[in-house]
Every structure is written in C-alpha cells, then in structure tokens.
Amino acid sequence: IAQECQKYEVIGSDLVANAVNELLCYGAEPLFFLDTYTCGKLKVEIAAEVIKGISKACKKAKCALIGGETAEMPGMYFESDFDLTSFARGAVERWKLLPQKEDISDGDVAIGLLTSSLNSVGIKILRKFLSNENLTFKNLSSAVLDDNCSFEEIILSPQDIYVDTVLPLIKRGVVKAVIYVSNGGIIEHAKKTLPDAYKIILDGKKWTIPPVFDFIAEHVGFSKDAMLRDFNCGVDMILIVDKHISEDILNDIKCSGKMASSIGVIKPRDNNEPHVELINAFHNLKGKSKHAETQYTSDVACRKFVPKNEYIKREVAVFTSDKGTTLKALIEYSQNEQNLSTFRVVLVVGPITNETKQIISTTTGTSIE
C-alpha cells in the first residue's frame, strides 16, 4: 500500500512501533534497535525515507538505533521490491517480568489504549482481501470518513508508540499484564495472557469503534465476526490493573496524551468457558457487511479469506512420541469445528504403541491394524 501511495516513512515508523510495544508486554524497557533493508535494486530516495521513519520512531521510543544492514539481492527480489526486518532488545529485572499471572485476580480492570488506525497485520489482511476481490487500494483511498480523514490518511498513519505512557506505569509496579493487539484481533491476544482460572469480559459499549472499521465492514465486505477476530477495532493495547487504582491509572494515561477507557473486567472462569467474553460486541460497529451472513476464517499461511463452508483443510502427517499425548490434542483440535483448524491428520509416523493405537481409535473412530 505504501508503494502504491509512494509514502514510505510510515513503514519505518511502524517497524519500530511493533518491536518496542511488544517489549512492553514483558515489562521491558527498549534499549536498542537494528533493521535490515533488502531489495532488488537500491533506490536511495525510498530507503532514505524508510530510515527517516525508523530514526524518528526510535527517538520517540527512547531507543538507540545502533545499526542495520542494507542488501541488494536481484536474484531474489524484483527491482522495485524491498523487504524490511527488525530486531529490538529490551531489559527488565527477572522478577518484574510481565505478565504477573499470579497477581491477576477477580475484579481487576482492563484499560484499553485506543487508536483510530489499523495495526500492520490488519492492513496486510485488508490488502490480501482487496487482491482476492480484484480491488485496488486506490478504489478506496479517496473516500472521506466521518472524522473528515480520507481512508488513505487513516491506513497510512503511523502506529502509536506507548513507551512514554506505559513504561512509567510498569516501573511503578501497578500493571499486572500488557496485551498488545499487534497481530490480529483483540480476542486472540487477550486469551494468551490470562491465567486459566480467569477470563476477561470486554464491553463494546465502553469504547467507540473508529469510522475506518465501519468503512471496512460496509464497503470492503468483512463480516462483523471477522472484524473482531482479525482487526484491533480501535483497541491498540490493554493494561490489566487493580480495580482500586484503575481510575488513577486511567487519568495518568490521558494526561500523557493518549486516548484510553476502562473497557473490561477480570472474572473467574469455568473450565468450559472461553478466556475472552465480549458483551455488546457489535454495539459500535455500524457497517452492514455485504457478507454479513457468511462466517469467514483466515488461512494462517496466506491470510486468504474464504467462506467457512468452502474451507479446505490441509492433510498433514504427524511424528509422535511413545506417549502420544500431543497427538491426541492435535487430532481433537483439528476435529473441533469451533477451532476452524487449517489441517487434518491423515498419517501418523513413529513408534505406534498400544497406547497410541487406543488414542487414534478413540479420537477418530478408526480401527488401527
């Protein structure tokens, strides 16, 4: 998209933002950053704009840009193509590592740091979907949204860097967990952070979904389920804090210049309950998707969206150990329609013990010779 619009500085900025914001999830203070710029043929003006974005973002994150590498690989890339990778190092005392799962308890508050833009993976999914629908970004870029910003301006706005806002709170010891919604939607990220005994209840009425997500749902064609699963929907980061000091922390965040709201609460979880529960989930999502009646799932490998009833699973072989407990979990996961798994186990390789045979027979209903 940046190539299509010839705006490259934002790529460098987002490269840094993703790295340093992820470090905050561990309670770490960003120390230094390195990048690699690989291309078919070096175009100095483009590379300079990318590095300008990296430099500005590192300064904002108080993170040293200590070096990088530029490589021309004409045999691997087309002349106009380039690729960026990054590495960031942070530091934290081992006993202060986040999340502090043992401290998370009933009644803790989830504070959402809000954004009006998509994260980088959301943009990738959007671009892939447009390609599948034979649309281009230019078909949408000039559209003006409710906040008087064009679709292009929103998509190519740099991601927020939260070091100045969140790191002081972490150092004060008032943050129990940090959830950065960088790769997909808020549901997937939240459930990875919580202890098994607890769930997070998010209330859709507690924050306003920005116009860009309404626009995507209505004009591009994502279902509302897909929007919540694959996009951040206006929530960039979630902090889990004690309920008794949540208002003070919320005020501190707002004083730092960031938008924030108390969007949920931690509650005990039964074994059969999900880790994340959304109430009033579609309250602020106004757009009516042209595929509203279709459930979409995303292929992990290529992020290609297809209707669930047309989804084809890959057939895979599994190497198993003597006990076969992982094999059992894999087969059960692939058979559960709620998981929308991308694979189906068709071959088992390894020491096939009587216990393994029993597992395969029980989970698949197939007799093993």
Automatic annotation (TrEMBL):
Annotated pathway, please?
Answer: Purine metabolism; IMP biosynthesis via de novo pathway; 5-amino-1-(5-phospho-D-ribosyl)imidazole from N(2)-formyl-N(1)-(5-phospho-D-ribosyl)glycinamide: step 2/2
PurM-like N-terminal domain boundaries? 9-90
Q: Which GO cellular component terms, listed alphabetically, does the Swiss-Prot or TrEMBL entry include?
A: cytosol
Q: Name one GO biological process term.
A: adenine biosynthetic process
E.C. no: 6.3.3.1
> Which GO MF terms are attached to this record?
ATP binding; phosphoribosylamine-glycine ligase activity; phosphoribosylformylglycinamidine cyclo-ligase activity
Q: Name one Pfam family in it.
A: AIRS
Record key words, sorted:
ATP-binding, Ligase, Nucleotide-binding
The record's annotation in InterPro entries points to: PurM-like_C_dom, PurM-like_C_sf, PurM-like_N, PurM-like_N_sf, PurM_cligase
In this protein, which residues make up the domain named PurM-like C-terminal? Answer: 138-274
Q: What is this protein called?
A: phosphoribosylformylglycinamidine cyclo-ligase
- Species of origin reads Trichonephila clavata (Joro spider)
